Amino acid sequence: MVLAGDQVLRPLPQERHPVSKVKKKALPVQRLKLCGLVLLGFVLGLTVILCQARIAYVGYRLTELQTEMARVRAENQAIDGALQRLVAPDRIEAAAVQRLGMVKPAAGAELRLLAPVPAVETANAPGRESEGVTQREEVSWLKAFLDVLSFKHSDAANGSWS
């Protein structure tokens, strides 16, 4: 009986387990998948970090530009205020009197120019006969300007203007 007990303890040749060969082939495929997942996770993590860094940079730049815009607006308002003070009619008059030595004209020495009214041609009614009436010619702005200059020149020659 001892002989029968020894045989039971040894594995039989038909009971060999082919599992060891399958594990050797499956092991490199699993390692490849695992390495691929780790690499993918690393790339995704790096992408998220870079996107967050870019968002932080853009936010910082936006804040910086808003601050600069507020500074420029304040400067613009200060310049507008100074401009309004400089172009005020009272200030211009005071500068003309003090710096340039100008004086206000006398009440009767003012010269007013009125633009000539252009002549309007009237169309004849269909039942009216043409009477041959001609309207005066329209005076141009250039002619009016030249008339003013000649008037001023003639008055200056007579000595009426000082």
Which helices and strands occur, and which strands form pairs?
Elements lengths: L1 H8 L9 H68 L2 H10 L42 H18 L4
Kindly report the average pLDDT value. Answer: 75
Alpha carbon gyration radius: 52 Å
- Helix/strand/pairing category: mainly alpha
Number of strands: 0
Overall helicity = 55-70%
Strand content: under 5%
Largest sheet descriptor: none
Cα separation of the termini? 156 Å
Continuous helix count: 4
- Indicate the overall shape: rod-shaped
Segments where pLDDT lies below 50 for 5+ residues? 130-138
Q: What pattern of helices and strands is seen along the backbone? A: HHHH
Descriptive tags:
single chain, 162 residues, mainly alpha, 4 helices
In a nutshell, what does this entry contain?
This protein has a domain at 23-104. 64% of the residues lie in helices and 0% in strands. It has helices spanning 2-9, 19-86, 89-98, 141-158.
Write up what this structure looks like.
By secondary structure, this protein is mostly helical. The protein contains four helices and no strands. The protein has a domain of 82 residues. It is 64% helix and 0% strand. The longest helix has 68 residues.
